[in-house]
């Protein structure tokens, strides 16, 4: 447990969550089942000996205290610190309690390490793209070419215009499909009644 990275862990006790508040969050944290809790701390000694919490100021060693409460976001911060005197403490770690779940806050070392790793990734990516633009010519020496890269064979084939044979084949296929499914095609112009059939009916009628 000492070598384990606790910043990837979390802990909660579902039985406490409904009544959890700033008044009992320290007792909630100081449970022996909490993996972030140091069972050799002064809080545990005071609890076993039923001492007044105020007596922690006069004890030396590891202790936990409520550092901050944010009612708007339901966030509470517990600090682990080493006490040397009533007025001198050294912060060791911070833990934030959010909606009953406890997490260990990252320290400055891990924050800087994460930021630097992200920065180096983007720098390496930029250098790789820059190296692709580096050219060498026996007459010119080293120089930079910022012309667009040569398209691949697939791109050339994709952008190549179709041949006369392909165009004729596609036109023939469209013509076949048009004749086969002409009943399903929509008319694009206005519907004009056929006058020929009416005239034909007038001719077929006997003259009076």
**Average pLDDT for all residues:** 82
Helix content: 25-40%
Q: How big a fraction of the residues is strand?
A: 15-25%
Q: Segments where pLDDT lies below 50 for 5+ residues? A: 195-200
Strand order of the largest sheet: 1-5-4-3-2
Specify Rg, calculated over alpha carbons: 40 Å
How many strand segments?
7
Rough outline: elongated
| Largest sheet data | 5 strands, antiparallel
Specify the number of helices. Answer: 6
Global structural class: alpha+beta
Spatial separation of the terminal alpha carbons: 116 Å
- SSE order, as H and E? EHHEEEEHEEHHH
Commentary on this structure:
- The protein is of the alpha+beta class and 208 residues long.
- Helices cover 33% and strands 22% of the residues.
- The protein has six helices and seven strands.
- The strands form two sheets. It has a five-stranded antiparallel sheet. The protein has a two-stranded antiparallel sheet with strand order 6-7.
- The longest helix has 24 residues, at 108-131.
- It is elongated, with a radius of gyration of 40 Å.
Short characterization:
This protein is an alpha+beta fold.
């Amino acid at each position: 447990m000492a070598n384990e990275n606790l910043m990837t862990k979390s802990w909660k006790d579902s039985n406490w969550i409904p009544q959890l508040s700033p008044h009992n969050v320290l007792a909630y944290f100081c449970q022996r089942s909490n993996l972030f809790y140091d069972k050799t701390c002064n809080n545990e000694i005071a609890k076993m000996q039923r001492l007044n919490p105020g007596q922690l100021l006069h004890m030396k060693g590891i202790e936990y205290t409520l550092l901050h409460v944010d009612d708007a976001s339901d966030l509470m911060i517990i600090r682990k610190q080493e006490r040397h005197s009533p007025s001198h403490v050294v912060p060791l770690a911070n833990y934030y309690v959010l909606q009953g779940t406890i997490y260990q806050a990252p320290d400055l070392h891990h924050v800087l390490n994460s930021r630097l790793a992200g920065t180096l990734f983007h720098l390496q990516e930029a250098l790789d793209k820059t190296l692709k633009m580096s050219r060498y010519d026996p007459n010119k020496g080293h120089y930079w070419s910022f012309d667009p890269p040569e398209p691949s064979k697939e791109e050339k084939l994709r952008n190549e215009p179709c041949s006369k044979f392909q165009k004729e084949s596609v036109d023939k296929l469209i013509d076949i499909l048009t004749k086969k499914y002409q009943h399903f095609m929509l008319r694009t112009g206005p519907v004009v009644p056929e006058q020929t059939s009416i005239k034909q009916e007038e001719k077929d009628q006997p003259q009076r």
